[in-house]
Amino acid sequence: MSRLSPILLLSLSCSLGIDAADLPAPAAMGSALDPSLIDSSDVFGLVSELMPWDPNVSGADDAFARLIERDPWRALDEIESRLRSQGDMGGVIRWAPRLAQRLPSDSRASLLNALALAAAGQTAQAQAALDQIPVDGPVGTTAMYRPLARAFLLRAQRRFADALEAARQAGELDPRHPYPDNLIGRLRIEQGEVDAAISSFEDAIAKSDRFVPGFTNLGSARLLRRDDQGAHQAFDQALAIQPTNCPALIGLATLDQLESDARMAATRLLACVDADPSNLLARQRLVPVLLEQRDYAEAERHARALLDQDAPMARRLLGDILLRLDRPAEAREALVPLVSDDQAGYLLVYADLVENDLTGAQQRLRILNRQVAAAGPRFLELVVSIALGKEPTKTEIAELAKAPAGQPLADLITATALLSSGRFDEARPHWQRSESILAPFSLIGLEARTLDDAAFKLERPSFLLGFALYLKDLQPAAGRAFSAGLAHDPDSPFGRYFSALSQLALGDRQGAIKHLRHALIAAPKFFAAHTLLAGLSLETGDNAQAIEHFEAARRLHLDASVLVTLGMLHERQQNTDEAVRIYRQLIADFPDSFIGYNQLAWLYARRGENLGKALDLATRANEIQPGNSGVQDTLGWIFFQRGEYPQALEYARNANQIAKGSRPEILYHLARMDYAVDKNVEKVKKTLGDLLQGHPAFDGRDEASSFIDRLK
Question: Is residue 51 situated within a structural domain?
Answer without folding.
Answer: no
